TrEMBL record:
<feature type="domain" description="Helicase C-terminal">
    <location>
        <begin position="299"/>
        <end position="453"/>
    </location>
</feature>
<dbReference type="GO" id="GO:0043138">
    <property type="term" value="F:3'-5' DNA helicase activity"/>
</dbReference>
<dbReference type="InterPro" id="IPR022307">
    <property type="entry name" value="Helicase_put_actinobac"/>
</dbReference>
<dbReference type="Pfam" id="PF00270">
    <property type="entry name" value="DEAD"/>
</dbReference>
<dbReference type="InterPro" id="IPR027417">
    <property type="entry name" value="P-loop_NTPase"/>
</dbReference>
<keyword id="KW-0378">Hydrolase</keyword>
<dbReference type="Pfam" id="PF09369">
    <property type="entry name" value="MZB"/>
</dbReference>
<feature type="domain" description="Helicase ATP-binding">
    <location>
        <begin position="65"/>
        <end position="257"/>
    </location>
</feature>
<keyword id="KW-0347">Helicase</keyword>
<dbReference type="Pfam" id="PF22982">
    <property type="entry name" value="WHD_HRQ1"/>
</dbReference>
<dbReference type="GO" id="GO:0005524">
    <property type="term" value="F:ATP binding"/>
</dbReference>
<keyword id="KW-0547">Nucleotide-binding</keyword>
<dbReference type="GO" id="GO:0003676">
    <property type="term" value="F:nucleic acid binding"/>
</dbReference>
<keyword id="KW-0067">ATP-binding</keyword>
<dbReference type="InterPro" id="IPR011545">
    <property type="entry name" value="DEAD/DEAH_box_helicase_dom"/>
</dbReference>
<dbReference type="GO" id="GO:0006289">
    <property type="term" value="P:nucleotide-excision repair"/>
</dbReference>
<dbReference type="InterPro" id="IPR055227">
    <property type="entry name" value="HRQ1_WHD"/>
</dbReference>
Length: 798
């Protein structure tokens, strides 16, 4: 096993004074504080933990388990590797074991509906990992009938689980699509549900978190109808405001949730390296560019594996997982041929048995490294890992610390490396590493968003008729929404409540996607039918329109067919773009037109929040907007200097999105007072918009692609220079709302980003955006700096 110091020396030697090793942080370990096994815990369960080497629980484990045992909703928000699972499994296994004891079944209904427990994981990998550990823990516990049920589970196994299991491990998707719609078949299990475990609570944020909140509320509603009242257990190492987040997920008050956040476990020493790739001149180019984060990570992975380290390399996409693993294998083949076959990719889209084999191979040491998406970020305890590599800022501090926590567990020290990508957010982190250690982001959710809530109301009505009592379940002020859905033909009102209209052909549980809309368009080689890559729906119109040059792993293709479909007046993205292989020195850049309509402009009291600076020279607002965007044309550029060759018009449908926006309106005299000439004002506003979008993910729990924006020197409704930033989700996701209430911090962080970039006129590391519909023109970095300094003094929040 390699030592941490040996690996640190390796990185220092690889850096060789080049400046790629930007920062090194060391975190000392600490001893733990033991608690005692509680008196209520069943001896058989305690003995099971002892056989796994746990002679005593940590003090926080005793406290959390006792709170759960007493029936209090509890959130355990202690560090990665602090034993949160034991906090849950000690009371859960005790309850199941006691339920199996005939002497403790005092009432007849206890025989008909014995105690059950449900565990929900965000990923199949995490559920499989928990099942593996529970199977090893519980061989002598006769009261535990464990079953896993998800999309990978064989049909016969699912039937056994439904009929016999008293502890089921699954995910919210299976709950939404199978268990809740068929709740009558699951009456035995739901009627006895005593404990519900929600693992990796911080994962449920934004649009997905809002969906999961409503799934949980529907589950608890059915349990109450069947006579159960489950205690909910939330687990998360990285979440801000844990009690508030937990309460929002299940629709109770914060006072109803007990928080255990003081970590008393033993912590191993950790080392964190910030690494920024250097510059190189690519083939056919004359100007040096920063080496890509994925290419740098492939080299680092190979050299660390060559030093006998066990490595997890986290990347942002499936394509990156395949690319980095392939390039790592090439490096290993060249420098460490005895380790060929020691690196593999791990991502969604693999067969279940392939994923399980990879997980086992990493645990046993057969594989030295996996290059993975966040599928292995969450909770999986693979002991003996030496290093984690995080390729590009993972979106949130919460995700970063989750990934860091995978290296070095127990008494074993761990090493983590954050490899920066060449974008504003990563550059900001490299220049201001202190933000890594700020409190993790709030898990923003908005289950009352009508676009999200409406299909769940329909699903709930199909599960059991809605009544006035269900208003509180879904956080509604009245039954008005039920009546509106009745008038629209989705529900039918009967004396006993609102029912789903079974005459409709659609099944209510198919009206929504829990994890957002379909997120990828496949790029398929027309001649072979081979899938050569994927593009997110948000980028598809601009990246794979007809005529676009698509570059994948150094190979060039031209898109010959991509047609978004128009359905019911709205645009549904195509799922496939056909491409042909070409050799070309040309590249394409799409242009688009965006407009923003303020929906509550005439009645601010109804929907617009307003803050005006004491100076009266700028007003910030937040409210509902309608955003229209259309890809209109593309430029053809020639390498290596990206010289303009020509422009071609496109006929693409316009996309319309009703969402939430935060915007600011400037008084006419501001530009003059700041020394920004009228001809430079569009570029200053545009650069400010790009930078604000780039930096907001540092504050809110989101990604750059979860946001959009518009800047204009004269908006048709505000009659003033205006900059909009909007959530890129129907109904909004709460991201820009968070930005509105933290406007000062948002403006200051944006100013720090732009001022700290060494470029003169703007670059991809500060004010240029890869998703700009105006092809990053015009941009005025100097004007943006003046404007941002003004905003820091004139913004809402503290």
């Amino acid at each position: 096993m390699s030592s941490t110091q040996k690996l640190l020396d390796l990185l220092i030697n690889l850096d060789a004074g080049s400046g790629r090793l930007v920062k090194h942080f060391s975190f000392p370990g600490r001893p733990g504080i033991y608690g005692t096994w509680p008196d209520w815990a069943t001896p058989q369960v305690v003995d099971a933990f002892k056989t796994k080497g746990i002679e005593k629980p940590w003090q926080h484990q005793t406290q959390a388990a006792t709170s759960i045992h007493h029936g209090t909703h509890t959130v355990i928000a202690t560090g990665t590797g602090s034993g949160k699972s034991l906090c849950a499994w000690l009371p859960v296994l005790t309850a199941l074991e006691n339920s199996n004891d005939a002497n403790k079944r005092a009432r007849l209904k206890d025989w008909a509906r014995p105690t059950t427990a449900l565990y929900l994981a965000p990923t199949k990998a995490l559920a499989a990992d928990q099942a593996h550990k529970l199977t090893e823990l519980c061989p002598d516990l006769t009261g535990i009938r464990l079953g896993t049920a998800d999309g990978d589970t064989p049909r016969e196994t699912k039937e056994w689980v439904r009929a016999n299991a008293n502890l089921i491990l699954t995910n919210p998707d299976y709950l939404h699509h199978v268990m809740l719609p068929g709740n009558q078949r699951w009456a035995r299990f739901l009627g006895g549900l005593k404990y519900l475990i929600v693992d990796e609570m911080h994962y449920w944020r934004g649009i997905t978190g809002s969906h999961i909140s409503l799934v949980l509320r529907r589950l608890l509603r059915l349990c109450r109808l069947y006579g159960a009242n489950p205690t909910v257990i939330f687990l998360s190492a990285t979440v801000a405001h844990p009690a508030e987040t937990a309460a929002a997920l299940i629709g109770v008050t914060e006072a109803d949730v007990h928080t255990v956040a003081e970590d008393t476990s033993r912590i191993a020493a950790k080392e964190l390296i910030l690494w920024q790739p250097g510059y190189a001149i690519a083939e056919n180019e004359t100007e040096p560019r920063r080496v890509s984060a994925t290419a740098e990570a492939a080299k680092l992975t190979a050299h660390l594996v060559g030093a006998d380290a066990r490595v997890l390399t986290f990347v942002r996409s499936r394509a990156a997982a395949e690319s980095v693993s392939a390039h790592s294998r090439e490096q290993i083949s060249a420098y460490y041929p005895h380790l060929i076959g020691s690196v593999a990719a791990y991502r969604g889209g693999y067969l279940p048995e392939e994923r399980r084999e990879l997980e086992t191979a990493l645990r046993t040491g057969q594989l030295r490294s996996l290059v993975t998406t966040n599928a292995l970020e969450l909770g999986i305890d693979i002991s003996g890992l030496d290093v984690t590599l995080t390729v590009g800022w993972p979106g949130t501090r919460a995700s970063l610390w989750q990934q860091i926590g995978r290296a070095g567990r127990g008494e074993t020290a761990g090493l983590s490396v954050l490899v920066a990508a060449d974008n504003p957010l990563d550059n900001y982190v490299m220049a201001h590493p202190e933000i890594i250690f700020e409190p993790v982001e709030a898990a923003t959710i908005n289950p009352t968003n009508q676009y999200i809530l409406t299909p769940h109301i329909c699903a709930a009505a199909a599960e059991h008729p809605l009544t006035e009592d269900d208003v509180a379940v879904f956080g509604l002020p009245s039954t008005k929404l039920f009546s509106e859905l009745e008038q629209a033909g989705y529900l039918r009102l009967r004396p006993t409540g609102w029912y789903w209209n079974v005459a409709l052909h659609a099944a209510p549980h198919t009206l929504t996607e829990l994890r957002g809309e379909d997120t990828e368009v496949q790029v398929v080689e027309a001649e072979t039918g081979r899938v050569i890559g994927t593009v997110s729906v948000a980028q598809a119109d601009a990246a794979v329109h007809p005529g676009a040059v698509y570059v994948h792993q150094g190979q060039t293709f031209q898109i010959i067919e991509y047609v978004p479909a128009v359905v019911g007046g709205g645009v549904r993205p195509a799922t496939v773009a056909l491409a042909k292989r070409i050799t070309t020195q040309f590249r394409t850049v799409a242009g688009s037109q965006t407009s923003v309509q303020i929906l509550d402009a005439d009645n601010f009291s109804e929907g617009v929040t307003v803050w005006t600076a004491p100076s009266g020279k700028v007003t910030w607002k937040h409210g509902r907007t309608r955003v229209s965007e259309q890809v209109t044309d593309f430029d053809t550029l020639r390498l290596p200097k990206l010289e303009y060759v020509g422009n071609q018009k496109l006929s693409m449908p316009s996309r319309v999105l009703e969402t939430q926006s935060t915007w600011f309106e400037l008084a006419d005299e501001v530009a003059t007072e700041l020394g920004i000439e009228l001809k430079d004002l569009p570029g200053a506003l545009h650069a400010c918009e790009h930078a604000m979008i780039a930096i907001l993910p540092i504050l809110a729990t989101c990604d750059r692609w979860d946001l959009g924006g518009l800047s204009t020197i004269l908006h048709e409704q505000t009659f003033a220079p205006t900059v909009f930033v909007h959530d890129a989700f129907a109904g909004g996701a709460g991201f820009v709302h968070y930005g509105f209430h933290h406007g000062v911090t948002w403006a200051q962080r944006t100013l720090d980003l732009v001022a700290g970039c060494p470029c003169e006129s703007g670059c991809p590391g500060c004010v240029q955006s890869p998703k700009c519909g105006n092809k990053n023109n015009p941009l005025d970095k100097g004007g943006a700096l003046k404007l941002l300094k003004f905003l820091v003094r004139n913004a809402p929040g503290k």
